[in-house]
Specification:
Elements (H helix, E strand, L loop, with lengths): L13 H23 L5 H13 L9 E6 L2 E4 L9 H12 L2 E6 L5 H11 L3 H6 L3 H7 L5 E5 L2 H8 L6 H11 L7 H10 L3 H14 L6 H22 L4 H12 L4 H9 L6 H10 L4 H13 L5 H11 L3 H17 L10 H9 L8 E4 L8 E4 L7
Antiparallel strand pairs: 1-2, 1-3, 3-4, 5-6
Helix pairs in contact: 1-2, 1-3, 1-4, 7-8, 8-11, 10-11, 10-12, 11-12, 11-13, 13-16, 15-16, 15-17
């Protein structure tokens, strides 16, 4: 029996829609607060108190199962009749951690929610290195939430009409350094996948997470490069007209990596081999918007090393005028992000901006020592927060 179309899909009742949007808004506000303020700050208690109330036993009649899509949330496969910005932003945040389903049990207290939201504020790459957000949450003995992660290889297997183990073989071959082979059905699936930058990033993230070698960045870099090269080989052979669009999607996907991972790829350019040419082709397709989002996302992330972020940014963008233009774009991305702050919600920042001639919220300080190659860049992440 075919799946119901989007138009025929059951929708949430008004009460369910209200409960979901209230949860999304409370979760978004609390997630921002725990990243902006230290423990014990009044804003922490106020925002966490709201989500504790929304999910209390008095308010929530029973466990609620939330299915996470890239830009939407559903309850029991039923979507809202109309879009909501807070729901879309929370969905994007959860999806970035490959959370496919979140079950909320009534009764989570303030500290339990704070622990989860601090976890949600970590870089996805960092959590994947620790085994994924679901595994880390389990080790923290979290009881008020159940997290089901997306196994992207399983998703590919389910969507492929070919061998059920085809995508596991592709990823395994990539990690082992051998050439992967695809049947016609898998080739068709791959061509569809690489047309979507988010799905492509999920596949590359799976390769990165499964790379062995004690977490060594060189091993992860080599594995990702093999996957990129294999994808381009398949596209060039079967759909050469898609090479340019695929390179653009690769550039967008690579822009979602951590500064360390991106620097690992950028360092390959110095080797002058086929891998260097591939990296250069991908990097030249990175748009200003992609680079600005890379800066904003990692500037907000407390676990991203500031020096590494600055080094990656300066490696990607050499021109001083372009740097300032991209930092302005990154400022806008920060303000619009689910964890971003605004002057209205950040009085100290408002005071700083009132005394400043520039509205920029990200600053790049470059000091020259000897040659241009020895310049060190440092981002002032504090300007993004209170």
């Amino acid at each position: 029996m075919p799946e119901p179309t989007a138009a025929a899909r059951p929708t949430l009742t008004p009460d369910e829609w209200h409960r979901l949007t209230e949860f999304a808004r409370a979760c978004k506000a609390a997630a921002r607060a725990v990243m902006l303020y230290p423990a014990g700050h009044p804003a922490i208690g106020a925002t966490l108190g709201r989500i504790v109330h929304v999910t209390s036993r008095d308010t929530l009649p029973g466990p609620i199962g939330i299915t996470v899509l890239p830009g939407d949330l559903m309850i029991d496969d039923r979507a809202a009749a109309r879009a909501d910005l807070a729901v879309a932003e929370l969905a994007a945040l959860l999806h970035s951690h490959l959370i496919g389903r979140l079950t909320v049990h009534p009764g989570g207290d303030l500290e339990a929610w704070r622990a989860f939201l601090l976890l949600l504020g970590r870089a996805p790459e960092s959590l994947r290195a620790d085994g994924g957000i679901s595994r880390v949450w389990t080790t923290m003995a979290g009881r008020h939430l159940e997290i089901e992660e997306i196994d992207y290889a399983s998703v590919l297997r389910e969507r492929s009409s070919g061998d059920v183990a085809a995508w596991d073989k592709v990823i395994a071959s990539c990690l082992q350094g051998s050439t992967f082979e695809l049947d016609d059905a898998a080739v068709a699936e791959l061509l569809g996948l690489v047309g979507d930058a988010d799905r492509l990033h999920d596949l590359l993230a799976t390769v990165e997470a499964r790379a062995e070698g004690g977490g060594a960045m060189s091993v992860k870099t080599a594995a990702v490069l093999r996957m990129l090269r294999g994808i381009l080989d398949v596209v060039s052979k079967n759909a050469p007209e898609q090479v340019e669009p695929v390179l653009r999607n690769m550039a967008s996907a690579v822009g979602q990596f951590s500064p360390d991972m991106l620097l690992g790829l950028l360092d390959r350019r110095r080797q002058g081999d086929e891998g260097a040419q591939l990296v250069q082709s991908v990097v030249t397709h990175m748009t200003e918007g992609t680079i600005a989002k890379f800066v904003a996302r990692n500037a907000l992330n407390e676990e991203s090393a500031t020096d590494r972020l600055a080094q990656a940014f300066q490696t990607l963008v050499r021109d001083a005028d372009q740097q300032q233009r991209l930092l302005a774009l990154a400022r806008d991305d920060v303000a619009a992000s689910p964890l971003g702050s605004t002057a209205a919600s950040c009085p100290a920042r408002a005071r700083r901006q009132s005394r400043s001639k520039s509205p920029a919220t990200i600053h790049l300080n470059v000091s020259a020592r000897g040659s241009a190659r020895s310049r060190r860049a440092r981002f002032e992440r504090s300007t993004l927060r209170c």
